Amino acid sequence: MKKRDAKDLISKYLRDDISPEERVLVEQWFIKDLKDSHNLPTHDRIEAADKRVRENLLKHIGEQKSIIKPINIWPRFLAAASILLFVAIGGYYILHKSQVKLQMAANNIHDIAPGGNKAILTLANGKQIVLTGAKNGRLAMQGNIAVTKSADGELVYDSQPANVTGEITYNTMATPRGGQYHLKLADGTNVWLNAASSIKYPTTFAGKSREVEITGEAYFEVVHNAAMPFRVISNGQKVEVLGTHFNVNTYIDEPAIKTTLIEGSVKVTTAKHITMLKPGQQAVINSEDNTPIKIIDNADAEQVLAWKNEEFNFSDTDIQTVMRQIGRWYDVDIEYAGKIPGDRLSGTFSRNLTASKALKLLKFSGINFKIEGRKIIVN
Question: What residues contact 63, with CB distance under 8 A and at least 6 apart?
């Protein structure tokens, strides 16, 4: 970067006549200068120097319109510009005029946005539709069923009387890491998919049962139909209901499969065991052996459904479980520097925070985190 080019960018920044790309470049210089400094300026020093620095800097810019002195002024110029920018863009860099907030601003350049409504729909013929960018309205016809994306972003299968004369067709919805989605099946059943999850389902229900297959995590509000039980197949277990609300967590990187009943009743079946759940109970199945299904009474429904309600909710939760949720939602890899901390965390906060803000809250537990690209390092 030439000295003249750098000076011109600073001048454009002060006039607020700068492109977004150039603004990022100037602010990166500012952040680097502060990071390289051993003595960050206090707020009092900044305010005391502000007027003098502004006058000198503007005077210098004016003088350089006609004369370019053959001396290496850039290091001092950048340092002065850094102090001026620190004051000029106040709310962004000094929110509450503290050095702690200043350090957060320096980290924001590596920040990661939270997840959102993202999913891919695979039709019966193999065609894929990226729902994130799809327009509202009818997306496809599957037999006599219209597949529609509603104004609030949910995918709806228009409920029609079953009239199946040929082979039943299946669709699959899959969310990536950092994604979630709401789906309404042909029978009116509502399904919410968490990040890194999928559901395979018929485009219309016929016969004596309604069956779907899932991976990852999903919450169901099943429409009652005594003549057609609703079955959810996942990772070695089957959940059967008539009409009820329940959550199934079947991530393969979790140590257990957990089915939590909110209302109604469900039957949970594995290769060797069967159990019935009552509202408030949770069935826990160890995915690595054939031990009996463990029943937890008075399961924490708020914690189980926090993801659906756009929250993280931890209660005496080990750090690895916490970071698996963080990794799936922010689409990042998790790395542990040294021994994995044995700390257990408790707290509730929004899933709509950026990664740096979420990690700042977790730091109250005494654990340090660092963001490098799309990786979070746990110290």
Answer: none
Helix, strand, coil shares of the chain as percentages rounded to 5? 30, 30, 40
Nearest to 361 by CA among 343, 347, 372: 347
Contact (CB, 8 A) for 30 and 86:
yes
**Cross-strand pairs, 145:** 142
Angle at 55 between CA 50 and CA 56, to 5 degrees: 100
In this structure, the dihedral spanned by the alpha carbons of residues 22, 23, 24 and 26, taken in order and rounded to 10 degrees, is 90
| Global model pTM greater than 0.85 | no
Q: Which residue has the tokens 């901390």?
A: 341
Q: Which two tokens stand for residue 238?
A: 């089957």
Contacts of 323 (CB under 8 A, 6+ apart): 334, 376, 378
Domains 117-303 and 310-378 share a fold: no
pLDDT digits (tens, 9 = 90+) for 190-245: 999 999 999 999 999 988 999 999 999 999 999 999 999 999 999 889 999 988 99
- The token pair at 65 is 């319109």
* Residue pLDDT, tens place only, 133-152: 889 999 999 888 899 999 88
The fold of 310-378 is Phage tail protein beta-alpha-beta fold (3.55.50)
DSSP code string of 322-367: HHHHHHHHHT-EEEE-SSPP--EEEEEEETTS-HHHHHHHHGGGT-
Q: Within the chain, what is the greatest distance between any pair of CA atoms? A: 89
The CATH code that applies to domain 117-303 is 2.60.120.1440
Tokens of 239: 């959940």
So where are the chain's domains?
Answer: 3-108, 117-303, 310-378
- Please, which residues bridge with residue 274 across strands? 269
